[in-house]
Amino acid sequence: EYRELFASTQSEVAVPIRDDSGRVRAVLNAEWDQRDAFSESDLAVMECMAALCGNLLNRSEQARREEALIRIGSSLDTVM
């Protein structure tokens, strides 16, 4: 759902941040008060930034899973 943050916005670029499965996890959004403010190179930079953000989200999730598996393993070791 689009939410207008600034009434003066004339240009906007929104790039999806995706996980390893291609699901949209967030959106990187840039707004400017002038028309046609963003170039193709601006879009390319934002796409790179979105890819980096997606990688960071994936790494964070993997670290949480790894920690959970370690805890499960420790619990099983204690029970045994």
Number of strands: 2
Order of helices and strands: EEH
User: So what's the overall shape?
Assistant: elongated
Ends distance: 51 Å
Q: Given the helix and strand composition, which structural class is it?
A: alpha+beta
Overall average residue pLDDT: 89
**Biggest sheet: strands side by side, in what order?**
1-2
Radius of gyration: 19 Å
| Fraction of residues in H or I helices | 40-55%
Question: Number of helical segments?
Answer: 1
Weakly predicted, low-confidence segments: none
**Major β-sheet annotation:** 2 strands, antiparallel
Strand content: 15-25%
Descriptive report:
With 80 residues, the chain is an alpha+beta fold. The chain is built from one helix and two strands, in the order E-E-H. The protein has one helix at 40-79; strands at 11-18, 24-32. A hairpin with a 5-residue loop joins strand 1 (11-18) and strand 2 (24-32). The longest helix is centred in the C-terminal third of the chain and has 40 residues, at 40-79. It is elongated and about 65 Å long. It starts with 10 loop residues before the first strand and ends with a helix. The mean pLDDT is 89.
